Amino acid sequence: MDPSLILQAIVSGVLASGLYALVSVGLALAIGVIGIVNFAHGEFFMIGAFLTYTLFVVFGIDPVLAVLFVAPALFLLGAVLYRSTIQHVLSAPELNQMLLTFGIGIVLQNLALLIWGGDPVSIAGIEYRSVGYRFAGISVGLVSLVSFAVSLALVIGLNLALTRTRLGRAMRAVAQNRTGAALVGLEVNRVYLVAFALSALLAGIGGVMIAVIQSPTPTIGLAFTLKAFSITVLAGLGNIRGILAASLVVALSESLVATLVPNGGTLSNAVFFAIIFLALVWRSRRTV
Amino acid sequence: MKLLRDLLPIAAFALFLWFLPDLLRAFAGRASVSYLSLVTNGVGLAILALSWDILARTGQLSLAHAAFYGTGAYVTAIMARHLDLPLWIGIPAGGLVAVILALGVGAVTLRLRGIYFAIATLAFTEVLKSVFRHLPTPFAGGAAGINVEPLFRPVFDAATMERWEIAFFRNEGYFLLYALLLIITILLSLMTRRSRLRQAFTAIRTNEEVAAIMGVHPARMKLLAFALSSFAVGMLGAVHAHRVGSVVPEGSFSVETTVLALVTPIFGGLYTTLGPIVGAGMLAGIEETLKRNLADGYLIGYGVVLILSILFLPKGLVGTTRAWWSRRQSKSMDTAEEGSA
């Protein structure tokens, strides 16, 4: 096998890991702070992508500018969903919480199917979409490069915000001990609301990127929920720091399988799900 | 006596199902063809829901129902294509292979609970979907799937039949098969409700460690529940494959099947036998109305029902009604005692 092909696969994998980390970090935030495993997380990502597409097709707004609309819109969506639904099941059994978010995911996905139909949509005709660079036989797209850098910046920024800012410290306090945080005067419910909305916002920004990189369909959400979930499981539930490394593992293995195995494009998903399955089973055997 | 109390309604229900096609034909004539297929969908939904609920009784929320459904469908399709056996053998074979598969997955995922079990079973379904897509094309059809022969081929007799009656007899055949599967599933479900399995399953659901100390074998019970739960779905998938005439990886292992299987009992009432059936009846009606008005995305109805059920009806229709009834009973008993005192 051509060594430059493997190198190319590694580079593509590394670049893809940024987006994975961005989406997963939002999920980890919701799990870590609120304790809600959000099955609708991938749908926030999908909605971000389709809002970007609509803004481009209907109003001619460039995706780079669209972020300014999409991010607040997703923040609002997250806040509304939290207030109207999630807030009411905080003390319900874990399975009820999970089923609720599963229901939200079904509604969002099918709403998108109703609005945009089931076919992939693509943002055609932006010049920078096809700009790429070549070094030593490896090609790198400008868009992937930028999305990697932005994702990395956002993930690191979130990490810093959690330790350096008032709100971030409040989130960590609430995550550690809900009652204690309330006793020292934190408005727990409000912190939860912001955390959930922020998690939707991060996924939405990821959606803007995927709208430019790929041609998404309204059904990509579930796959990304599962990807984000497996990354957070690999990183340790609620552990935001491990996300970058776990994303790298998942993205690299996907990209290597897609390149090295014949007919691997469709198989990479299967390999990926097999990894989740085996990781979960292996963990359960080890801990008990 | 207790046995009779259970069996009488089931026998009555079975009789009703047996005569339903003729009733429909007598009253609706030509339109009965589509009514029959609508009722068949409702019965299918009830089978999915009721069988899913059997496993849910042990506290395991499975997202792998589509895996057993798809396996049953593929087993019968592959058998019909490659083996020279009567077609109907594919149906029990589909159920059996689904059970074997369920025992395998069940054994591996025994220790996973809650959200982890749910995710693992969902991932398993996706893996299986890919596996069937990547099996050699001459064997299993690849991404395009395989055509499946119909089970029923009514012969047209111009002297006694009208044209539309061919479709009617074909639909009637599938309906009766579905009805048979539903009765089997009801019996399985009642068996776990009325025997000591009920206490065992409930104990595991409430607290597995305590259950184990009390002498319930959690692993064995969960595997049993998994097997009981997958048997009917495997057969349902097989019959459905013959009914629609083809199997494709995307359709046979669709998340949709899993969604239907879990929303219906939650809406109707978890851990009951009546709940999933009542839920299926109502949801099949809602689904049909939505399907007529929306091209894609009719599943949105299931999502809304799921959200509303969790928020407002955590015990489901049947559970809520029963709680209300027993409250009323106890209240009227209180007033009766006060009156006599």
Structure description:
Chain A has 288 residues and is mainly alpha-helical. Chain A is 76% helix and 3% strand. Chain A has eleven helices and two strands; from the N terminus they run ααααββααααααα. Chain A has helices at 3-34, 41-59, 63-84, 94-116, 142-164, 166-176, 178-183, 188-213, 220-235, 243-260, 264-287; strands at residues 132-135, 138-141. In chain A, strands 1-2 form a two-stranded antiparallel ribbon. In chain A, helix 5 (142-164) runs antiparallel to helix 8 and helix 6 packs across helix 8. The radius of gyration of chain A is 19 Å and the shape is globular. Chain B has a two-stranded antiparallel sheet. The two termini of chain B are 34 Å apart. The interface between A and B is large, with 46 and 42 residues.
Beta-strand share of residues of chain A:
under 5%
The number of strands of chain A is 2
Number of discrete domains of chain B: 1
Structural class of chain B comes to mainly alpha
Average pLDDT reading of chain A: 88
What string, H for helix and E for strand, traces the elements of chain B in order? HHHHHHEHHHHEHHHHH
Question: In order across it, which strands form the biggest sheet of chain B?
Answer: 1-2
Under CATH, the topology of chain B can be stated as: ABC transporter involved in vitamin B12 uptake, BtuC
Question: Widest sheet of chain A: strand order?
Answer: 1-2
Q: What is the secondary structure topology, with strand pairs?
A:
The complex is a heterodimer of chains A (288) and B (341).
Chain A: H1 3-34, H2 41-59, H3 63-84, H4 94-116, E1 132-135, E2 138-141, H5 142-164, H6 166-176, H7 178-183, H8 188-213, H9 220-235, H10 243-260, H11 264-287
Antiparallel strand pairs in A: 1-2
Helix pairs in contact in A: 1-5, 1-8, 1-9, 1-10, 2-3, 2-4, 2-8, 2-9, 3-8, 5-6, 5-8, 6-8, 9-10, 9-11, 10-11
Chain B: H1 2-28, H2 32-56, H3 65-82, H4 90-109, H5 114-134, H6 137-140, E1 146-147, H7 164-194, H8 197-206, H9 208-213, H10 218-244, E2 246-247, H11 249-252, H12 255-268, H13 274-293, H14 300-312, H15 316-340
Antiparallel strand pairs in B: 1-2
